[in-house]
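Possible regression after last week's pipeline update?

I re-ran a chain I had predicted before the update to compare outputs. Posting the input and the new output here so someone can diff against the archived version. Not blocking, just want to make sure nothing changed silently.
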Amino acid sequence: MVTEISLNTICGHTTKVIATKEGKNTHVHIKTTCEKLRKWGTQFDMDMKDLMGGPETMLAQKMAEAPLTPTCFVPATVMNACWLENGLISKNLAREMGKMEIIFDKLE
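New output (post-update):
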């Protein structure tokens, strides 16, 4: 199975996160127009320990090596893709939602 999530963000870059369950690991492939993300890493594997979060995880290690801006949605998108691919979030619920949004309600 495979899970794909696309991002169109305020920074103007487009990114697609692809997660594929391979045995005990989840392979992550990131297609992006962002150079910072290319340095951060576009192919890596995450195990179940990494999916639970914390300071010793693959994403924490990647952020220490090549920090992204605090507003970058890619790390959260990687986690959502991996959780979906491992059954920790319902794919039916995600299909039903279709998309998640951040709405800038008031900007004065």
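Follow-up from reviewer: compared with the archived run. The chain has five helices and four strands. Marking as no regression found.
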